Amino acid sequence: MTITCDRLIASGVAPTQANAFAQPLTDACARFDISTPARIAAFLGQCMVESDRLIHCEENLFYSDPARIFMVFPSHFTSANDAAPYAKNPQKLANRVYGTRLGNGDELSGDGWRFRGRGLVQITGRERYTDATVGLARDYLNNPDAVAQPVDACLTAAWFWSCIKANLPADAGDIDAITRAVNGRAMLNASLRRQYTQQALAAFSA
Q1: pLDDT digit string, tens, across residues 83-110
Q2: Alpha helices in the chain (DSSP H)
Q3: Residue 155: CB partners within 8 Å, gap ≥ 6?
Q4: Predicted pLDDT at 126
């Protein structure tokens, strides 16, 4: 099924993003059998929340307030004062909070920044980038920035969708089950994910 600009706009995507993502989404969805209105709508509903309606394909780790850093990453800092050197320094922050996690090397390795979250449904960490490299036969380990570009942002999102077997709950209309698989127990923005899914379903069923 072709994902057109008009249908993306009707789903709530801005025209600029619709033009940039229509063809990459069409190709990625075809590759992973995201092929019915229900599947496409559920997929888009998740992607739109994760990327702020296809606007942001890279994790924002710029924080100007040390207290906010401590609030968001409490397991990595002992206080706001401890977090102060990481304010306004996203690279340093990424290396701290993602170091020795997710298959990354330690803080000094630079892996935290190199393999920060990218894509429509963000993949994060050397381990996930390795899996995507193998699964898609595209060298994200040596070119991780590619995942923030439309083609690979869509491919990695559709690949992840396939990994979690999300077509099955999409067929059943179980959007909360998909949200749980994507976002974990936090279920952040669950109602917005359902809303975007319904908008996209109306656009792709017309």
Answers
A1: 999 999 999 999 999 999 999 999 999 9
A2: 5-11, 15-31, 37-50, 66-72, 80-83, 90-98, 111-114, 126-136, 150-163, 167-172, 175-183, 190-205
A3: 24, 27, 28, 31, 136, 138
A4: 98
| Nearest-angstrom CA–CA distance, 148 and 93 | 19
**Residue at 133 is within a domain:** no
Give residue for tokens 């894509």: 119
Q: Are residues 198 and 172 in the same domain?
A: yes
Domain that holds residue 91: 66-114
Average pLDDT, the chain: 97
Write down the pLDDT at residue 206. 83
Task: Name the band, by pLDDT with cuts 50, 70 and 90, for residue 6.
Answer: very high
Write out the two tokens for 142: 């040596």
Q: CB under 8 Å, gap of 24 or more: what pairs does 163-167 form?
A: 163/131, 163/135, 166/42, 166/43, 166/46, 167/33, 167/34, 167/39
Determine if residue 101 is left, alpha or beta; phi over 0 gives left, psi from -120 to 50 gives alpha, anything else beta. Answer: beta
Residue 127 lies in a domain: no
**CB 136 within 8 Å of CB 119:** no
Split into its structural domains, the chain has a count of 2
Question: Is 193 within a domain?
Answer: yes
